[in-house]
Each structure stands twice: as structure tokens, then as C-alpha cells.
Amino acid sequence: MSFSVEPPDSTGPSGESRPTSSPLDVYRHSSAHLLAAAVTELYAGVQCGVGPPTEDGFFYDFLTERPFTLEDLAAIEKRMTEIVKQDRAIERRVFSKEEALALFTARGQTLKCELIREKAGDEVQCYAMGDFVDFCLGPHLPSSGCIKAFKLLSVAAAYWKGIEGNPQLQRIYGTSFFTSEDLERHLKRLDEARRRDHRRLGRDLDLFSISEDTGAGLILWHPKGAFIRTKIEDYWRDEHLKGGYDLIYTPHIAKLDLWKTSGHTEYYRANMYSPIEIENVEYQLKPMNCPFHIMILRSKPRSYRDLPIRYAELGTVYRFERSGVLHGLMRVRGFTQDDAHVFCRPDQLESELIRVLDFVTSILRTFGFEQYEIFLSTRPDKSSGTAEQWETATAALKHALEARDLRYAVDPGEGVFYGPKIDIKIKDCLDRAWQCSTIQVDFHNPQRFELEFIGEDGRAHSLVMVHRALLGSLERFFGVLIEHYAGAFPLWLAPVQAVVIPVSIRHAEYAHRVAADLRESGLRVDVDDRNEKMGYRIREAQLQKVPYMLIVGDREQEAGSVSARHRRRGDLGPMNPRELARRINHNVSERVVQEEPTASTGGVS
RNA sequence: GCCGGCGUAGCUCAGUGGUAGAGCAGCUGAUUCGUAAUCAGCAGGUCCUCGGUUCAAGUCCGAGCGCCGGCUCCA
Q1: Which of A68, A127, A543, A550 is the 20 to 30 A CA-CA neighbour of A225?
Q2: Within 7 Å: CB of A339 and strand B?
């Protein structure tokens, strides 16, 4: 198993301080300058903000009178091409602070002046590309002519310095590569991402929907989506029972007082729905499951012999999310966490964390995810507990990561209010990272709820709890799965594993007989005997990403066989239905993710 | 929430203040077909909602709701 980690870009959009180490970063940084040069030449009075390289390209922020349109983007791109042709030298220049301020003031670049005042020392380093000059640490390419392949992609608003409340600038996103082949490949990848968009596939494959009448961010799981979810949940439950967890269920609301005790009303209120009053008592729709699990633990005294206790629940929570952040299944207002809480003695903490890490990687691998980005998030500003507790908790997480030789990056101040956490972002087949798994150490809640166990010495001791979700939320995880597989789910998850297609109406009876036999062997099989041409029905099954199409006509009826067509491998030729069922069943029980390479081996995926 | 864009049939989209349109999907019929779309007919509309301007609003204006791209925030 390999792990790759890229450090989080904690410098943010004021990214002039972002280290531009890699050659491609430098190339893209110069591309951003090229963009800014073109914009300032085309539009008088435009102010420049910042323009760093990013993981996939670059952007530059501008303060403008009116927003840029797509036509503007085309014009800017044209001017950029001209500047590249001119092959302007990119020259490093050093000014005194006074000179620099005078220069940028004269050009009406007050945002740059602000940055210079904040960031520059006595000497102000700038880079010029023709008449365009930018306050910048560099380094840069020698000349604009070095930029061979670039494209502007989109325009959107961004807060000045990334601070909400600051004026919004117009951010132009673009990308550039050393060669036009690389650029083409990247643009193809963007196309591929659009093709895999879970929102489109969710509708086309009839997996889920979101209705304006129901409410934004609230998911309606259609039968096929619900089926896949059930398969995921069944697997999840089996693994948790094997893994030493106890399964529990808890309510969706609880008295507001419970959330006061847990600290949620104090630290998490912005994400909570308003309380509901019932018989003069306020109740709160749950944003998290932990207090309920705590109540179960607290329902009777616990001995050191009982620990660790691991409670797991597919718990549905509701969080208020601002309207602009909602996004298909990825960011919703009601979601089901595959949540669990491990209650243990302090001396058990590290081994429990290691156990969770092993568990999460084994579960994720089943779904075909073997590449991760791992982050250790430390104490945020708004948090509860003592410095020692945070240190102990953070160290425990760190030791667990090191024990398993997992590379990670520290994400400062990104922990939860009650403790630090490990976030695991899974990488999909397009190399995109998705935040799913989270592992959190919590001293705060045990203290708040006075969680104790009776030790060997007969006295009460405080315990520690670990919050963890492996898939994160079933909604988001499903969205990631849809995009990862482009809707072509592996056999163990596919709602329909095979469609029997009779060549003509006189083969319909045989088709239904074959389907019935296959269902008898445990397969999920439909018959498409509609009055349409075979090609039409094959096309439809292909578009629905059904793994197998089983064509039956005179030849098959005669021989008692089917002609199998695989969604990816195409025509596999005649097969014995029982043999096919045996292979599919084997594939399902092994939860095979990768399709086997060739038809000739008789492989089935 | 903020900035920008968008909202017309189930889906993708035309529609320039004056009679609401196409393709696909759906339904009906014909066709009985060998590995990604057979042909014909029919039906389908609160032009997102509310308010305003106008003789007249899908079209112009305002507010709200939702969606899209970002920012910010996050499982």
C-alpha cells in the first residue's frame, strides 16, 4: 500500500508567500503574471490582488468596476498569446520601500501598496514583464516566451485576502503546462470529471434526487441508490461486528440540555438548527451522535475489565450549512455518519488508535481506494480543554500514525472544538482528494459528562474517548463512489448485475427462464423484452452501466446458453448460464473491484 | 451567507415586448430484429414563485426560492 501526501496550502490566497519550489510552480506563477499583464493592459483602472500558482494551475485576483465575462476571458487570452509572442523579458527589480510605494501608487495599485506595507522589508522585490510590474518574491521564468501552453478556465469572486467581509475581487482561474500535450491531457481530465459528475449520474442512473419541495441539501435515495447503500451498510455492519464493535441506535433529537453539557451549544451553534419546544422543554435536532453514545456508556458503572467499549451506529445528523456551500451529495444538510465511539483507558488509547487506522485502510481498500492524503489537525482557536489534554491527545494521534508509518501533514488549528483529529482524504481514480474518514481524540466530553470506570484499585478513573467515522457520511461517500466508478459499480454493489435481452419476441420465454434460474442462484437480473431492436436495448443497458448483457436468440435457446456481453469488454461469446452465475457470485463474495483483464481467461467482473 | 451566472415539457436546449417550440424520454400502433439509438402517430407547459411596469411579459424591473462556478465553511 502506498501513501502520498501533499501538504495543505495553509498560506491561503494571499499566496505570494507560498513557496514556489517546483519548476511547474514557477512556470505557472509566471503564467499568472502573464495574465495580470494582459488584464492591466486591456482594462484601465483594474487593480491587481494576488496571483499564485495552485495545484492544477494558477489564478489572479483583480479589483474591477464590473465583473469579467466569458468574452473578456477570450480577449484576455488573446492578449496573453500576443505577450508570449513578444517574448518579453521577466526582470527582477529591487526598489526601496518608498520607491515601490510611489510606483504602485502612481499606477493606482492600492492593493499592492497594502501588501507592500504589510509584507515587504526595506527592500521591495518586484518582477517586471514589459510595462507590467508586480510585487513578488518569485522566482520566475526568464521571459514570457517560455510559456508554451496555457488556458483560462473560469472567473469567480474571492474575498480580498480570503477574509469574509473584505471586498470581493474577480478571480480568473487558468492553467498552464510545459507542453500543449500536457495541457490537452489536463483538459481531457477536466472533461472526464464533468462526465463523472455524481449529480448527473445520480439522475441518469436513477440513484437519488434532491427536490426543491423537500429542501436544499436533503437527499432522496431512489431504489437503486438505496440498494447500493444497503449493500454498503450490510458490509459495514458485518465488519464492525467482526472488529469488536457493538451496534447501537439512538434518536434524532434530544433535550437541549444534553447539548449544553456536551458544549455544542457553546461551540457548534452556528451549525445547529433551532431548538424545538415540546411541553415547555427545548429539544435539539442532532448535529452529532456522540452525546447519545455517551449516555449509553453512562447507563451503568463500567469496570476496567469492560474497556475498551466500542459503540457504532449509522447515525443521521442534521447540520445547518450555508446555502452557497451545498453541493449534490458531497455537502448536504442531513447525512448519515458511519459513526463510532471508542471508550477506553488512557493506557489503551494508542493501541485503539492504531486499531482504527488499520480498520479504516482495510475498509477503504474494499471500495478500491488505496491512495490517501492524511492530515493531523491541531487545536483550533475556539476550543475547550487544557493545553495538556490537547498535547496528550495530539501526541497519541501522531504516535499512531508513526506506528503505521503513515505520512501526514499537520493542519494547524483545524481540530474539532473537543479535540485534535486525523483526517484521511481518499484519492479517486482522477487523483482528486475527498475528505471522508476522521479520527478524533476527546478528553473534553468524558470530563463534561463525568465518564469514569472502576479500576483494579476499586477507585473511579477518568476515561478517554475516540470519535471516528470511516466512510465519513454515507451521502458523500456514495457521491465519491459514483464519481470514482463513473457509475459503473463493481458487481457486489451493482443494483442490476445482468439484463437478459431476447433477440426477438419468440425468445422471450427462454429469456425469462434464464433470468429465473440466475435469480435462483442469487443474481440480480432483469429481462428487457420490450418491443425495441436489440441494439437499442443493448445501448440502454450500456448507458445504465449494467455489468452484463445476456443475449438470447435461436442459437442460445437451442444450446441452453447465453451470449454474454460485458459493459467494458464487449462481446464474450456463448456461455453456460450456470457457469456465469458461479463466476459472478465468486466475484461478489470477494467484492472484486478491478475487472479481470481478458475474456479469454473466462474472467468475470 | 457573499460575488457572478442561470431557472421554458421528465432530460438537453431554442424562443429579439405581440398565438409556447425542437430533439431525446413517455404513450399508442406498425415492425420481430444478432451486440451502443427502426418507423409513424399522440400526448406532454403555473415559461421557478410572488409583486411591479405595459394595451400586452417567457421576454423589462424588484423581492424570494432553487441550481451552477467560486469565496468562506465542512463529514
Answers
A1: A550
A2: no
